[in-house]
Amino acid sequence: MGFRLPAIIRAKQILQRSPSTGSQTSSGAIDVPKGYLAVYVGENQMKRFVIPVSFLNQPSFRELLTQAEEEFGYDHPMGGLTIPCSQSRFIDVVSCLNHS
């Protein structure tokens, strides 16, 4: 697999980190734009990313979801969708999804 700088740049654009996206509600939570989903990614320290909902149907992203289910089940104290993989692996998966 070759190094694709444009793919990484595009992945970073799609993986808009909150709080730079969305507006803040009265409760202090950050809104997620329509058609997107907030996920928490990381092995030790979680980072919040906003991704398109369409990724949920992709086989490579479903592998990450299966890994999250095996580790956390459906009851996770963080309250959001948490994906227990390295941020670099997550960005690689998203980059591949952008090219398909």
From TrEMBL:
GO terms for biological process: response to auxin. InterPro entries: SAUR_fam. It comes from the Eukaryota. PANTHER family: SAUR-LIKE AUXIN-RESPONSIVE PROTEIN FAMILY-RELATED (PTHR31929). Belongs to the ARG7 family. This is Uncharacterized protein. It comes from Jatropha curcas (Barbados nut).
